[in-house]
Amino acid sequence: MSVISCFSFGRTKIFNFTASTTSRSPFSSKTSIPTSSTAKKTVQRSVKIEQRTKFGITDIDGYPYKGANELVQRSEPPPHWEKVLEGIRKMMSFSKDGPVDSMESEEAADTVPPKERRFAVLASTVLSSQTKGHVSQGATKRLRLNGLLTADTINKADEETIRKLIYPVGFYKRKASNLKKIADICLMKYDGDIPNSVEELLLLPGVGPKIAYLVMILGWNNVQGICVDTHVHRICNRLGWVSRAGTKQKTSTPEETRKALQRWLPREEWVPINPLMVDFGRTICTPLRPHCGKCCISSLCPSAFTETSKPSSKSNKSELKKRL
């Protein structure tokens, strides 16, 4: 997935994540709370709602964000996960394709007003869903060249014009309609800006969890969760890194994978794991017939050679191990 020119996600120079990974409650511990149990719960609930509304969704007591009024209990990490991750990083350093989420250029992001930059991030991320990177990059560039990457300009533009400019992105007709609706909502509720919480982003048409968490990272520089797409979902299940809560069964959706992964993956890995796994998933751990013979961490993968057409082919693997 790729986003607007001059912004990026992953291993590029422009995107430099520096935000704090934890947040303190802005409310004093000396707040007066009624003694009655019912009243106490009511006040506590109103404080949480006010905190999410005014300051965005925050971590609570050091636990990763899961959802409104929900906490995620930590779980034990899978064995050798650090070695596996390091092996994948080494393999991708030899990749000829380079970062899958890199930008077409590194224009000065500081020249774009923050409000417009954030809306452009949201719009381009919506376009990138279920679309190849170069296709969505082209669509985003055409919108930009025609001055249609702000809430105001998209709201005023004819939907047919937007369709023509973003074609051939996947579901371009629906996305053109969604962009118009998103622009209208952002103008009415956020003065042309975008929501600053996952919960509010998920209320926008065409925005699912993957897009919401990515927009929080790129738009607000705020890591609220892992951006899990089909590549991260597939690879984490193949590695045995995730399972349904309370079971050993594989997760069935990217959202289940996100929740399972956040139970143990260190927070400093939440941002880089997506572009790394997407690159790995497009080059080696492919959806059909993964290239286990080329993979240097296959000895640590419980799914190695179970989906390949030629399980005995290991020559490429030996060659790569020598290089590492």
UniProtKB/TrEMBL annotation:
Record localization: Plastid, Chloroplast stroma, Chloroplast nucleoid
Keywords: 4Fe-4S, DNA damage, DNA repair, Glycosidase, Hydrolase, Iron, Iron-sulfur, Lyase, Metal-binding, Transit peptide
Major localisation: plastid
Cofactor(s) needed: [4Fe-4S] cluster
PANTHER family the UniProt entry points to: ENDONUCLEASE III-LIKE PROTEIN 1
Signal peptide: none
Any GO molecular function: oxidized pyrimidine nucleobase lesion DNA N-glycosylase activity
Family that this chain belongs to: Belongs to the Nth/MutY family.
UniProt name for this protein: Endonuclease III homolog
Positions of region (Disordered): 21-41, 305-324
Source domain of life: Eukaryota
SMART domains in the cross-refs: ENDO3c (SM00478), FES (SM00525)
Domain HhH-GPD, first and last residues per copy: 127-283
Function: Bifunctional DNA N-glycosylase with associated apurinic/apyrimidinic (AP) lyase function that catalyzes the first step in base excision repair (BER), the primary repair pathway for the repair of oxidative DNA damage. The DNA N-glycosylase activity releases the damaged DNA base from DNA by cleaving the N-glycosidic bond, leaving an AP site. The AP lyase activity cleaves the phosphodiester bond 3' to the AP site by a beta-elimination. Primarily recognizes and repairs oxidative base damage of pyrimidines.
PROSITE patterns noted in UniProt: ENDONUCLEASE_III_2
Regions of compositional bias (Polar residues) in chain numbering: 305-315
Gene Ontology cellular component terms for the protein in this record: chloroplast nucleoid; nucleus
Zinc-finger among keywords: no
Catalytic activity: 2'-deoxyribonucleotide-(2'-deoxyribose 5'-phosphate)-2'-deoxyribonucleotide-DNA = a 3'-end 2'-deoxyribonucleotide-(2,3-dehydro-2,3-deoxyribose 5'-phosphate)-DNA + a 5'-end 5'-phospho-2'-deoxyribonucleoside-DNA + H(+)
One GO process term, biological-process aspect: nucleotide-excision repair
Gene expressing this chain: NTH1
EC number per UniProt: 3.2.2.-, 4.2.99.18
